[in-house]
Amino acid sequence: MATDNLFTPDLVRIHAGSATQEEAMREATDLLVAAGAVTPAYFEAMRERERSVSTFMGNGLAIPHGTFETMDAVLGSGISFVRYDGGVDWGGQRATFVVGIAGRDGEHLDLLGQIAVLFSDADEVAKLAAATTPEELYALISAAEA
Fold first, then answer.
1. Using CA atoms, how far apart are residues 114 and 94, in angstroms rounded to an integer?
2. Neighbours of 77 (CB within 10 A)
3. Contact present, 35 and 104 (Cβ < 8 Å)
4. CB of 39 within 8 A of CB of 46?
5. 70 or 32: whose pLDDT is higher?
6. Which residues contact 81 (CB under 8 A, 6 or more apart)?
7. Catalytic residue among 26, 49, 65, 108
8. Rounded to an integer, what distance in angstroms lies between the CA atom of residue 3 and that of residue 114?
9. What is each CA distance from 25 to 80, 102, 119, 126, in whole angstroms?
10. Distances in Å between the alpha carbon of 39 and those of 16, 55, 80?
11. pTM
């Protein structure tokens, strides 16, 4: 996936346990805030999106993001990638991977497409699930751009 400066090792986490959907969206937001991609208000933008349509994509993947109307909370483009080995109940579905995403000038559409391609390959998803450290997980995701 084309990561450039949108995705860095400090935006990757692995948790052995589970989280609530709210906790997972909060962590995704906090990572994007720390990266300078969004303001803290982006959390409410993610919640607003979930109220209108679930961002659960299948294959254990949820991609929480804001709405077009909340673009003022987006300062730049970025993605965070968090794996919850205990899972997250995402509106009745089990998410293992929560990819927070924020985009400016349509960059997020490319990011969404690249993530969808990565998660359409069961072997790649298995590799992501088997990674033992955030650094290994980051390397696997970054290698997917090749």
1. 21
2. 23
3. no
4. no
5. 32
6. 7, 11, 12, 13, 97, 98, 99, 137, 138, 141
7. 65
8. 10
9. 10, 12, 19, 23
10. 28, 20, 14
11. 0.91
